[in-house]
Amino acid sequence: AHDAVLLRKSYKGNVTGQDLPLPIGSFEDLITRFQFDKRLLSNLIESHFTEPTPIQCEAIPLALEGRDVLACAPTGSGKTVAFILPLLQQIISLGDKEGLKGLIISPTKELANQIFVECSKLSHKIYLARKRPLNIALLSKSLSAKLRNKVISDKKYDLIISTPLRLIDVVKNEALDLSDVKHLIFDEADKLFDSTFVEQADSILASCQDSQLRKSMFSATVPSSLEEVVNSIMLDPVRIIIGHKEA
Ligand code: ADP
Ligand code: MG
Q: Which residues form a coiled coil (predicted)?
């Protein structure tokens, strides 16, 4: 526990909430503390990620314990892996059950694509059952059309990454069912809950009906309006601030 305090001090981390787990000091801690999937860890190493960044040290154990998280850390500090890694682990733990379990929302197509690429690398060669890979999709225009035309079943994907409007469009057309989604992640949450996007973000929240839904937000800045959203939608949230709240 003392080491954890020192670790937190070393990167000026401020973590607040009830019953907080300790940060991880290395990715190997994930194997010893949580029965973390060894294939995920070896994919990490293949991506040359050897040591967790501060936001990863703090956010990964919280997510694995099923907590709602507001994570604020500077641009370039490794937030993507901080939310993808525990999400993939949790999807793997749910077994080969069909249907959409995780949803990552990004304000732009470019960012959604980067997240998709990172997810694909980290889930490489991981099978949920015999010959059944983890199915991850970027909700592109063509995939939306295929879902609407039922060329592809909406039960096929375990994880979808999308911009708000594209997602809302398929949901409205009843081409994608969000009712079983267990993990909802908002990347660049400051943008997703600003005045231009907030109605879309609320509509997505309203479509995710699972009572066990875990929500998290990652951002480089936390405007007070985002704090208000956190207080209204999250259950017993944990706030992680690395560096300053305003970029
Ligand atoms: P952010 O979303 O916080 O702006 P990114 O997730 O885009 O940052 O990560 C920035 C860069 O750091 C990326 O190139 C990513 O591959 C790299 N990175 C992430 N985690 C690690 C790590 N643990 N070790 C080394 N590089 C990392
Ligand atoms: Mg980012």
A: none
